[in-house]
Amino acid sequence: MILFAVLPALFTSCDKIGGSASVQVSYPLQPMTFVYTPTAPKSVAEELLLYQVQVNLNVDSLINKYLPGGVLGNTAFDTLWITIVPPDTANFAWLASARAEVASDSVFTSPLPIGNVTNTDSTVNAKTLVLHLDQTNIQPLLGTQGFWFRLYADTRSAIPFQWITMQINSGLTMTIEPSK
């Protein structure tokens, strides 16, 4: 399990709701770096689980920082991209598409899709792919400690590397509302 420290939010804004102000917080998650090592040559059109991690998020601390006594409202990913770090010769030519989902538990009993990307001819040799986000509200999954994250890939060919280091960068937009 990888633990993520609470990072300060980059941007906040306020909206009036019934005389009280809600606070919208843009919250960058710590980059997630992992090494993917294919266990055997993979065939075309096979879905692979590339990465799974628990993302720890101290929700109570964020609420108390921005709106003490408030409650967490709508929370969604606002950025999510994958970058190949080394090897330098690696690119996403082997990847047909990718998708990400989150859940409240490690077995993903009720996962929520959060984004996907199709690797087109214009991005086939790219080292970075940006996922198109669904704006799914993940707040019901958060509890007080965070959520589980998974990244899947559909291959278009065998993965031509013994290992690939990738980094996932992402961020959330969270609405903190006054308690009623």
Explain this structure.
The protein has 180 residues and is mainly beta. It has a domain at 30-59 and 79-169: Jelly Rolls. It is 7% helix and 52% strand. It is built from 2 helices and 10 strands; from the N terminus they run βββαβββββαββ. It has helices at 59-66, 139-142; strands at 11-17, 20-36, 47-56, 71-84, 95-103, 112-118, 128-130, 132-133, 146-155, 164-177.
SSE blueprint:
Elements: E1 11-17, E2 20-36, E3 47-56, H1 59-66, E4 71-84, E5 95-103, E6 112-118, E7 128-130, E8 132-133, H2 139-142, E9 146-155, E10 164-177
Antiparallel strand pairs: 1-2, 2-10, 3-9, 4-7, 4-10, 5-6, 5-9, 6-8
What gross morphology would you assign? elongated
Q: How many beta-strand segments?
A: 10
**CATH architecture type of the domain at 30-59 and 79-169:** Sandwich
Give helix and strand order, one letter per element, not per position: EEEHEEEEEHEE
| CATH fold-level topology of the domain at 30-59 and 79-169 | Jelly Rolls
Class of the domain at 30-59 and 79-169 in CATH?
Mainly Beta
Distance between the termini: 36 Å
Q: Uncertain spans, ≥5 residues at pLDDT below 50?
A: 1-12
